[in-house]
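dumping this here before i forget
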Amino acid sequence: MAKDLYAENKMLRRRLDDYIAQAHRNEAKLRRFQTHELRLISLNSLFELIQNVLYPDPAVFHWDLVTLLLLDPEYEIRRILEEEGVNLADHPALSFAAHPNDLDVMFPVSLFAYLGPYQPQHHAALFGATRRAPKSVALLPLVRRGKLIGSLNIGSYNAERFVKGVRTDFLEHLAAVVAICVENATNLERLKRQGLTDTLTAINNRRFFDQRLTEELDRAARDGLPLSCLLLDVDHFKKVNDNYGHQTGDQVLREVAALIRAQLRGSDVLSRYGGEEFAALLARLRAAEAAEVAERIRDNVACHRFATQDGLPFQVTLSIGVAAYCPRQPMDLDAQPRGEVLVGHADRALYEAKSAGRNRVIIAREAVSAAAEEWY
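structure:
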């Protein structure tokens, strides 16, 4: 009897020691997670946030793979990152969903984390950029106000690391913090851009264009890739205001802005340049390629049915000037004069399009800079 009590007491002590050791491990894990989460909360840059999510300290988090999928139907997050100079191709662990349905299929039953074996038919898109597929995964939904905004995905080469039934308190709390931080960082970027947005058309304004022009020219010169500029002007816009009223004129500008944007890539820069004039920057396109885009824009606007406040249909057209900077050798001009020259060439091409009868696309043909061979 005494031996049985001794053995039972010894077993209970061993269990107690195990519980205490587990509690210490959980406490240490909690401190690691809290430190990481506080760092995420302190970051103001969206890119810094994403970097810290994708590349956590390996000494703290023993994760083999981490990827991040974000909902970005309007290309907004990607545009923010590209404007920060981020080359998305350098970060294959970061991906984007264009439609909420792309996320819903990952969590069809509920917005709870999935822990279990790696299933290529379901998870390859999340870990496809990795050299080696994981054996087990933890897929953590990023949720704000009951809606999925992304997924934080962790992979392990150990098939037993992430299995159904394992507690996910720390991981789910981390996912909640990441979701809040992504939303806050995106909102902060929106606030920064409010002063760079045209309130009528909801596209960027002249100030934003001038800022991006310098950045895009620097990038073009650095990478040795072309940069095209379009200047687009609504033909006889004064007559629209005079004949149909300023409310109709404002609606025309909004619709024209939307028609232009529909033909551009998400990474292209579109701004209201002033009045009825718009400007666009198309990276990596030569003048002839940019002119094809411009022609599609011109045709779409010409075929579009505009309407007055009373429903009376009418049509408007665009004249478009195209110029391109194609770096071939180092230039003496800095980015600002290059920008002035590029826009100047596009403006002269636009003037030529107006003079030739409007509703047409003209490519700038003459250069007036010291590096004339670089302009087309």
